[in-house]
Amino acid sequence: MNSLRRRLILLLVASIVGVVGLATAAVISVRGGGPPPELTVPWIAQQMELVVRLQPGPVPDVLNVQLTDHPASGKVARAETAMLSDILRRRGFDLRAIVNDKADEPGQVASVQLPDGRWAIMEVPHVKPPRREWLVLAGWISLIVAGATAVSVYFTSVLIRPLEMLEAAVSKIGSDGVLASVPEVGSAEVKATAHALNQLSARLKTAMESRMRLVAAAGHDLRTPMTRMRLRAEFLDDDREKWLHDLDELDRIADSAIRLVREEVNQDAVEPVDLERLVRDIAAEMRSLGHQVSADHLDKVSVRAGALGLRRALRNLIVNAATHGKGCSVSLTTPDGRAVLAIADHGPGIPPELLNKAFEPFFRVNPARWQSIPGAGLGLAIAKEIVERYGGTITLENLPGGGLLQTVGFEAV
């Protein structure tokens, strides 16, 4: 019942069925007792007058009158009896008349005593309910519900189409934060919504491109003054090594910023990638560089991603674990049709209040490590950008016995 579509459908169906049900009840209440006596009794009196005038001859079958020796049985309807007697008397017939209610079914019967002593019996016009009236009523209500449901589903779809468009557009936001183009077709409201979304997408794209150009230009322009500073530092005698170390750090920051922008702009062709083989190659590469990286259980599985980008992302994660975590172990499993890569290190982990900031650019748990461990603090940010671009997920959590667990998940192919 949390769906807006279901709520609207139920509301429309209930409204339509309620209105038609009330109208049906009103009609039944008005028509249920048959025509009023003011219409039926004068007609009965006219028919009885014809019967009297035709005596002593035969009575035509078209009059639908029965001649018997006694009046019809049943409870006497006093008001109708008085009305029929009065009408006959005003027409000049001083005859005895009785109107009785039928005992076994709805309706009434009029009995008039003819001059020869016989009784003329005629049914009073009455609208009889149809046989199996409950089945008829159930079919009528079922037809109303079916028609109301079809109408409600159609108009509900029309009403919530702009909302569905918003949901579809938001769900298609790319890794660059830009909305996909929405076709501007349909009603005026739908066109206005699509036009607003496309304008928003264009503005977001312009803002993202401007940000990327700014970061790339800043990283590129930093290299010229840093080169001049490096040349000047070569002629210094005091603190020469400190100056060069700081310049190397600035150079790494500029290069990392440029690489981050390139990851957002340049995208590899998506193709099936042998994740098990890729992880083994990266682990072997890290061991050759002196890092303590062990590959535990690795399932054979492939994922759809860009080979170069995915390699760069996983390498950043493993390097981060090996350097900051004093070595790490890597495992690859395939639960429920997903490829799950777990990278567990042996370091102190990250304080819980800082876990949600670990993927921010230039993030460091301990600023004092800025000098002790090379890097600009963009490794996790770049890895997250690449993994999410290919539809994957990446999470961080502290292990109970100490250390940090980095988990990467992809749909297996």
From TrEMBL:
<keyword id="KW-1003">Cell membrane</keyword>
<dbReference type="InterPro" id="IPR003594">
    <property type="entry name" value="HATPase_dom"/>
</dbReference>
<keyword id="KW-0418">Kinase</keyword>
<keyword id="KW-0472">Membrane</keyword>
<feature type="domain" description="Histidine kinase">
    <location>
        <begin position="217"/>
        <end position="413"/>
    </location>
</feature>
<protein>
    <recommendedName>
        <fullName>histidine kinase</fullName>
        <ecNumber>2.7.13.3</ecNumber>
    </recommendedName>
</protein>
<dbReference type="InterPro" id="IPR036890">
    <property type="entry name" value="HATPase_C_sf"/>
</dbReference>
<keyword id="KW-1133">Transmembrane helix</keyword>
<dbReference type="InterPro" id="IPR036097">
    <property type="entry name" value="HisK_dim/P_sf"/>
</dbReference>
<dbReference type="Pfam" id="PF00512">
    <property type="entry name" value="HisKA"/>
</dbReference>
<dbReference type="InterPro" id="IPR003660">
    <property type="entry name" value="HAMP_dom"/>
</dbReference>
<keyword id="KW-0597">Phosphoprotein</keyword>
<dbReference type="InterPro" id="IPR005467">
    <property type="entry name" value="His_kinase_dom"/>
</dbReference>
<dbReference type="Pfam" id="PF02518">
    <property type="entry name" value="HATPase_c"/>
</dbReference>
<dbReference type="InterPro" id="IPR004358">
    <property type="entry name" value="Sig_transdc_His_kin-like_C"/>
</dbReference>
<dbReference type="InterPro" id="IPR050980">
    <property type="entry name" value="2C_sensor_his_kinase"/>
</dbReference>
<feature type="transmembrane region" description="Helical">
    <location>
        <begin position="134"/>
        <end position="155"/>
    </location>
</feature>
<keyword id="KW-0547">Nucleotide-binding</keyword>
<feature type="domain" description="HAMP">
    <location>
        <begin position="157"/>
        <end position="209"/>
    </location>
</feature>
<dbReference type="GO" id="GO:0005524">
    <property type="term" value="F:ATP binding"/>
</dbReference>
<dbReference type="InterPro" id="IPR003661">
    <property type="entry name" value="HisK_dim/P_dom"/>
</dbReference>
<keyword id="KW-0067">ATP-binding</keyword>
<keyword id="KW-0812">Transmembrane</keyword>
<keyword id="KW-0808">Transferase</keyword>
